[in-house]
Amino acid sequence: MSEPVLKSIIQLLAISAAIDGEISASEREVIHGFIHESLNEDYAQPFIQLFNEYTEIAIAGNIEAVNICKRINVELNQKQKIIVLFHLLELVSVDGNIGEEEGRFVDSVAEAFNVDIHEYNIIKAFVTDEEALWLGLSNILVISNRKLDSKIRHIYKSRFSATIGVLRIPSVEMYMLKYFAGDTNTFLNGLLLKDHHIYTFSNGSVIRNEMITPIYYSDVVSRFLQSGQKSKIHFTAKHVYYTFPGGKIGLRNINLEEESGRLVGIMGASGSGKSTLLNVLNGNALPVGGQVMINGIDVHDEIDKQKIQGVIGYVPQDDLLIEDLSVFQNMYFAAKLCFGRHSEEEIHRLVNKTLQSLGLGDIADLKVGNVLQKTISGGQRKRLNIGLELLREPAVMFVDEPTSGLSSNDSENILDLLKELSLKGKLIFVVIHQPSSDIFKMFDRLLILDVGGYQIYYGNPIEAVTYFKSLANLVNSDQGVCQTCGNVNPEQIFNIIETKVVDEYGRYTSQRKISPVQWRKYYEERHPQRK
């Protein structure tokens, strides 16, 4: 967020707070909380002072809200504008009720921000009316120790004395959280939650309380997705072994269990078996032991696999595009091969719909080109490759290193696309290499392989950092996320896994401190059910 936009938001908050002519202590607390969430300690104080100055000007009636909204509209995306709206509503309702003039002001801001009126009414009720949690609205989920009616979307935690409401905003697929304090402290990504405050609940978020097991972002999102799915996919791999033709073992006793609506990352050092695992899971490679099943059907059984034909999609690392054809033509001929019985009109409609959903509509007529004569970008090539599989609408997708060779921005766009597909109910496995913090936090589950095909971790991505830090006896081993910026450092995991032994001269040797076999033993000791 740029400094001018932040100043504009603070001006809006100042106008809102000054409507009744004075600023209460609770209103100042909300403002200070917003500023501290947006900036680190070094920069927060000048903006707090700026808010005080704006408040005096606002009380005198010298700030024009319409122009401020116009400036914000130009720079902020719709998610950011909705977050601003939440802070405004929290501010005007912090003293217990919303005055008529305050209500009109926030309503006008919501209209200026082009927020859907139906969503705005639900947002307003969620922030200002505690009873909204118990009305059974489809957009609201409750986390509590109360036994609730089945019409209320609910995560039951018997020992959790607090209450948390989570609101889903479908138009921008974002989630906001409201906390009602209990007997013990609750933390969101390491941040102590305050009573009756509103927080953004985003990818990678985790709720912790000493009385309950952690509640992850994927746990919450899956509750909203469940009712919308016609048929659920259950994917399991049990005791999977694989050997290469020369006899070398590629995978050793791999176990996993997943279901629709998840984005699963597969990580590991070079030569650890990531692509091999992907090919075994998607049915392209036959394991020498164990089973891979979709809803109880073995994907390697020649007779049974006919029952799941079209369920699996695979996007290899190397693209399959025909360089002399346009983007549209590549998609069109793929559709003709898959849907030969469809009419020309149906195929054109399907291709155009898929291109638009991938953000490729504007380049449909461009020739794909090759590495030496580029016409479309690397990110667009990757999206087109994914699109070739999406035409068939597979329920389970396997994507091998989709970010390889891409810029950080293109990489994030590709993972955004895959995350969006998983939120719509697909199960997606992705082999990923050196992800950024934002990409890493998008995954719902993470499986880590070590050299020799050893499975050494399987679980929540954020927990992976603390898991390996605790095994290595590092300082602050309980912190997986930076408390200041919220970033995660995935490289830290592999720095720990591959730490070398130091000789008597203080030089690193080629020998690892902890071997793949030992990491596997640690994993089995802590996850005995996954041996």
Please, could you describe this protein's structure?
By secondary structure, this protein is of the alpha+beta class. The chain folds into three domains: 3-115, TerB-like (Orthogonal Bundle); 132-226, Tumour Suppressor Smad4, CATH 2.60.200.20; 234-311 and 394-495, Rossmann fold (3-Layer(aba) Sandwich). The protein is built from 17 helices and 21 strands. It has a six-stranded mixed β-sheet with strand order 15-16-17-12-18-19, sandwiched between helices. Strand 3 and strand 4 form a beta hairpin. Helix 1 packs across helix 3 and helix 12 runs parallel beside helix 13 (408-423). The longest helix has 19 residues, at 41-59. 37% of the residues are buried. The model has no long low-confidence stretch (mean pLDDT 85).
What is the terminal separation in angstroms? 47 Å
Just name the CATH architecture of the largest domain. 3-Layer(aba) Sandwich
Extended strand count: 21
Helix proportion: 25-40%
**Major beta sheet summary:** 6 strands, mixed
The CATH topology of the largest domain is given as Rossmann fold
What overall form do the CA principal axes indicate? globular
Mean pLDDT: 85
Structural class based on helices, strands and sheet pairing: alpha+beta
Q: Proportion of β residues? A: 15-25%
Whole-number radius of gyration? 26 Å
CATH class bucket of the largest domain: Alpha Beta
Oligomer: single chain
Q: How many H/I helical runs? A: 17
Write down the domain tally. 3
The residue ranges in which pLDDT falls below 50 over 5 or more consecutive positions are: none
Q: In order across it, which strands form the biggest sheet? A: 15-16-17-12-18-19
Determine the CATH superfamily of the largest domain. Answer: P-loop containing nucleotide triphosphate hydrolases
